[in-house]
Amino acid sequence: MPTVEWLKKEFHYGYDSGDVLSLIPNFRRFQEEQKIGGSYRKLFYQAVIPYMKPDSMVLELGPGRGSWSKAILKYLSSGKLQTVDFQDVSQWLKPEKYQGKLICHQVTDNSLSCITDSSIDFFWSFGVLCHNNVERIEEILKNALSKMKVGGFAVHEYADWKKLDNYGWERGKIPVSFQKLPDNEIWWPRNDRETMCQIATKSGWKVVNPDLGLVKRDSIIVLQKA
Ligand SMILES: C[S@@+](CC[C@H](N)C(=O)[O-])C[C@H]1O[C@@H](n2cnc3c(N)ncnc32)[C@H](O)[C@@H]1O
């Protein structure tokens, strides 16, 4: 199922994770946090804020309706956020409201050719790599590396089937039937910490931390362009 064609169609309605910074989560965010086993607010302050500065050039893959983008924009002064999604996210994120601080690119592949080489300080995604096959994640990581400034960080949430086994598939709301199906027929393709570290290293990234340990179901990797 997570072929590029499926990904392009599946999230056309604009995926929304709610306001990730509000002290009290709305119902949508509450449901997501129950499934993943962690707080999005805490995650933002521990997985995003330490890796970006107010003047950072930030790249976000797969913003959907922009729950994380809006939070990032609050913490950028002279910095800029560029988003890359198969969907036209400008209809939801309204870049015209941000005085040039937000640029939204609609793409058709994983080349990241719309992003200038050596321009990015921080590369972020949430709820994106977990829907991409390992081969595709490797392609994204490879293509992203040349877009980064030396010393720049990348932080990405990804599916971790070993963590999911411990946490519980039913609790995590991932269908148990996926265990018997090939990656191309499911929306939560196989991945784990070892595989992610292997493909990140192969793509030229330094693995700073394979999992920040902020949520119970998935993993969140920290990479750096050395
Ligand atoms: C589940 S939504 C998550 C949205 C948002 N990040 C959040 O957490 O609320 C996944 C989004 O990533 C986009 N997406 C998935 N794979 C992508 C890829 N390889 N390149 C660009 N966009 C992708 C989808 O179109 C969709 O908008």
Strands side by side in the biggest sheet? 3-2-1-4-5-7-6
Question: Ligands in the structure?
Answer: S-adenosylmethionine
- What is the string of SSEs from the N terminus onward? HHHEHEHEEHEHHEE
CATH class: Alpha Beta
Task: State the main characteristics.
7-stranded mixed beta sheet; 19% strand; binds S-adenosylmethionine; Rossmann fold; 226 residues; single chain; 8 helices; globular; alpha/beta; 7 strands
Give your account of this protein's structure.
The protein is of the alpha/beta class and 226 residues long. The protein has one domain (4-224): Rossmann fold, CATH 3.40.50. It has helices at 4-10, 27-36, 40-48, 67-74, 90-93, 134-145, 161-167, 193-202; strands spanning 57-61, 80-85, 102-106, 120-125, 148-158, 206-209, 219-224. It has a seven-stranded mixed beta sheet with strand order 3-2-1-4-5-7-6, with helices on both faces. Helix 6 runs parallel beside helix 8 (193-202). The protein is globular and about 45 Å long. The relative contact order is 0.16. The mean pLDDT is 96. Bound molecules: S-adenosylmethionine. Residues 7, 11, 15, 17, 61-64, 67-68, 84-87, 107, 110, 126-128, 131-132 line the site of S-adenosylmethionine (SAM).
In short:
With 226 residues, the protein is of the alpha/beta class. The chain is built from 8 helices and 7 strands.
Describe the protein's topology.
Elements: H1 4-10, H2 27-36, H3 40-48, E1 57-61, H4 67-74, E2 80-85, H5 90-93, E3 102-106, E4 120-125, H6 134-145, E5 148-158, H7 161-167, H8 193-202, E6 206-209, E7 219-224
Parallel strand pairs: 1-2, 1-4, 2-3, 4-5
Antiparallel strand pairs: 5-7, 6-7
